[in-house]
Design goal:
By secondary structure, the protein is an alpha+beta fold. The chain contains 4 helices and 12 strands, in the order E-E-H-E-E-E-H-E-E-E-H-E-H-E-E-E. The strands form 3 sheets. It has a 7-stranded antiparallel β-sheet, with helices on both faces. The two termini are about 25 Å apart.
């Protein structure tokens, strides 16, 4: 059984869970996922590993309520246990020394960005990250992890900007709130970060 330690509401239908799963946390890598079941007869659903902590033996999972199983999971609370959690599964994201790397995520797809950005930083890259319509815990997780590892932060800016997109969702313009002509713009959260040359502790690989 895999105990839910933390449950955090991100949107009315989206939840951030921290689950006790030491065997999986020891092996998890950026870009992988797990298969979970809420109960013994429950449906098996894939969830991206949004973060992992080897020392604490925990995984972070982000769940959006879109059907029966995810709605059931949304009703679970800390102290409840998942019947099964299988993984890590899937090919990890290819990590190498590229130089400067830009990570971009939007909406629900933001979940895997944090471990990927961390792994790229560990490999010696300068990592720039842009997150649109951001999930709040990501910003706090990035800042907290960097501070905990004594990694110098040159820039970590989080701001709500007005974005204008075409019918296909392609970004056309970004402007501040005071520029006027905002009727056809939507508010989006953008997070941009740049860290110093000191690497994050290697035991998180």
């Amino acid at each position: 059984m895999y105990e839910i330690l933390v449950k955090e509401k991100l949107t009315p239908v989206t939840w951030h869970f921290v689950v006790q799963a030491p065997a999986v946390a020891r092996k998890a890598q950026a870009g992988q996922f797990v298969i979970v079941r809420n109960h013994e007869r429950g449906e098996r659903i894939p969830l991206t590993v949004a973060d992992y902590d080897r020392a604490r033996g925990t995984l972070s999972l982000v769940v959006q309520e879109v059907g029966k199983t995810t709605m059931q999971m949304g009703a679970m609370v800390p102290g409840d246990c998942l019947a099964s959690l299988t993984g890590p599964l899937g090919e990890p994201t290819e990590i190498d020394l590229y130089g400067t790397v830009l990570c971009i995520g939007g909406g629900f797809a933001i979940a895997p960005i944090y471990p990927i950005a961390r792994a790229l930083k560990q490999a010696g890259n300068t990592v720039l990250t842009i997150l649109c319509r951001g999930i709040p815990f990501v910003t706090a997780s990035v800042r907290g992890e960097l501070n905990r590892r004594n990694v110098p932060i040159h820039v970590l800016a989080s701001s709500n900007l007005l974005a204008r997109r075409d019918a296909n969702g392609k970004l056309q313009d970004v402007q501040a709130h005071s520029e006027g002509g905002e009727e056809d713009c939507a508010q989006e959260r953008t997070i941009v970060g740049r860290c110093g040359s000191t690497g994050i502790h290697r035991d998180r690989n």
